[in-house]
Design brief:
Layout: H1 3-20, H2 27-41, E1 54-57, H3 64-74, E2 82-84, H4 95-108, E3 113-115, H5 128-134, E4 136-137, E5 143-145, E6 152-154, H6 156-165, E7 171-173, E8 182-185, E9 190-193, E10 207-212, E11 218-223
Parallel strand pairs: 1-2, 2-3, 4-6, 7-9
Antiparallel strand pairs: 1-10, 5-6, 8-9, 10-11
Helix pairs in contact: 1-4, 2-4
GO molecular function, one term: protein serine/threonine phosphatase activity
Cofactor: Mn(2+)
Family: Belongs to the PPP phosphatase family.
Length: 243
């Protein structure tokens, strides 16, 4: 490791320590961090290979203290490999701190953490990317119109065909509130993982993460909201359409 890399890593470690205390970086620091992240992410594949063992996480939605609880339950990075499936911002009080910490961890430990794009990370309104990020599993077979107004619903037959065509055994996805933190559907062809406990500070749900070992055997960890020390009070009710 060169002296420059040592200095760069030391700076990143300082930023991560600051963010772990829920303290924002300066605007200039965020710009520098984003440039470093852009350089790393631009070299990754659209379908990125992930090494096991790995812990798979769903939506966190700006609930910073619950993200810290997730790391307490699942293990700190880089001791634990992580795959985050998007939806880092919105709803919670700490979107900036949450997404900045995840990006900083990606830059510092690029081979130990994978961050995917969710439907809250970009203004995607149409086309294949919209369908990929907005569609939900459904009890009815075939394709259906999504009540979200974007994407589609897909039935068990669609999930089974997709898995068979792509030599897969499981679709792990996020993007949807499930009360126990994870939920199987389509005869275990699909699992939904949701990692924001008590979503929008009113839903009363648990959060979940999925651990995959070297042999691709899975297990789930569930957790409740972190203590709300110093967090601002809810001053207005979250509209139901956000749920």
């Amino acid at each position: 490791m060169t002296d420059f890399q040592k200095t760069e890593n030391k700076e990143l470690d300082q930023w991560i320590e600051q963010l772990n205390d829920c303290k924002q970086l300066s605007e200039n620091q965020v710009k520098v961090l984003c440039e470093k992240a852009k350089e790393i992410l631009s070299k990754e594949s659209n379908v990125q290979a992930v090494n096991c063992p790995v812990t798979v996480c769903g939506d966190v939605h700006g609930q910073f203290h619950d993200l810290m609880e997730l790391f307490r339950i699942g293990g700190r990075s880089p001791d634990t490999n992580y795959l985050f499936m998007g939806d880092y911002v919105d709803r919670g009080y700490y979107s900036v701190e949450t997404v900045t910490l995840l990006v900083a961890l990606k830059v510092r430990f690029k081979d130990r953490i994978t961050i995917l794009r969710g439907n809250h990370e970009s203004r995607i309104t149409q086309g294949p990317m919209c369908d990929l990020l907005w569609s939900d599993p459904d009890d009815r077979c075939g394709w259906g119109i999504s009540p979200r107004g974007a994407g589609y619903t897909f039935g068990q037959d669609i999930a089974e065909t997709f898995n068979h065509s792509n030599n897969l055994t499981l679709i792990a996805r996020a993007h949807q509130l499930v009360m126990e933190g994870y939920n199987w559907c389509h005869e275990k062809n699909v699992v939904t993982i949701f990692s924001a406990p008590n979503y929008c500070y009113r839903c009363g749900n648990q959060a979940g993460i999925m651990e995959l070992d070297d042999a691709l055997k899975y297990s789930f960890l569930q957790f409740d909201p972190a203590p709300r020390r110093g967090e601002p009070h809810v001053t207005r009710r979250t509209p139901d359409y956000f749920l």
